[in-house]
Amino acid sequence: MVASDPMLIFWALFIVGQDRPPAGIAQLMGPRGQPVLHRYAGIKHKAIALPFAIFFWHVFKIFQDTAFEVIDIEALAAAKRTTLPRMIYALGIREVGEATAAGLARHFGDMDSLLAADLTALEQVPDVGPVVAQSVLEFFAQSEHRVVVAALQRLGIHWPEIDVVAPASLPFIGQVWVLTGTLESMPRGTAKQHLIDLGAKVAGSVSAKTTVVVAGPGAGSKLEKAQSLGVQVRSEQDLLALFNQYEKEAE
To answer: Cα(25)–Cα(184) distance, rounded to whole angstroms?
Structure first.
């Protein structure tokens, strides 16, 4: 049985009310990057925990930071905005990481199309094989997971539809990139998201399957391994030039 909206809100507030800093959200992820907040709050369905916790953490911080001052309505509204790839990833579907979530979003364009997809349609998504496709299908076959998506929308959490993109049009499709060392011009998360948007998978370790390693100051063992394997190594400046190039081509 799925809890009612008030109960979901209660558990979300319970989570964000714990003595954990904002960075603790990342610490409450499993070893494969899957949300495990439900283990802490006793929530039966893990899909409920992360989206609600993140949203209500933002709300909690807005009230905490403003105290008795006028509440920033724009900040409150911003807490409800997300993207389709992030929403899919936050649901905690087994075998679906950030790159796969982005691929599903690009392929289907909106949540309704993803919810309606059968096994054949899911297997048409680049880098989605039978195992991942079956996992996605089984996840959305459970009515409680569909209820969660609908409940989030009722609470005002929203994400824009995105243009369906042909995989062949993505310059880094099928490539595996690794970021190592310090990035001086942008946060690592921003660089990672840009690479995913261009079709790449961003890995945390170097292997023979790695296509490119971007090495900044302080790069250590990952750079050494890339050089020993003959993997292409590029600088942060090279990466920025590529981002600028593809941004201009998209205009």
So the answer is: 25
Nearest to 104 by CA among 81, 88, 82: 88
* 118 and 232 belong to one structural domain: no
Domain total for the chain? 2
pTM for this predicted structure: 0.59
Q: Where are the alpha helices (DSSP H) in 21-129?
A: 24-27, 37-41, 46-66, 73-78, 84-90, 98-108, 111-116, 119-122
Q: Is residue 197 part of a domain?
A: yes
Closest C-alpha among 15, 94, 95, 98 to residue 52: 15
Residue 95: closest CA among 123, 42, 69, 131: 131
Three-class SS state of 186: coil
75-100 exposure pattern, b = at least 16 Cβ within 10 A, e = fewer: eeeebeebebbbbbbbbbbebbbbbb
Cβ distance 55 to 157 under 8 Å?
Answer: yes
Query: Helix, strand, or coil here: 225?
Result: helix
Q: What is the pLDDT of residues 150-207, one digit of tens each?
A: 887 787 777 877 777 777 788 898 899 999 999 999 999 889 989 988 889 899 999 9
Assess contact for 38 and 6: CB atoms under 8 A. no
Element (H, E) at 195: helix 188-197
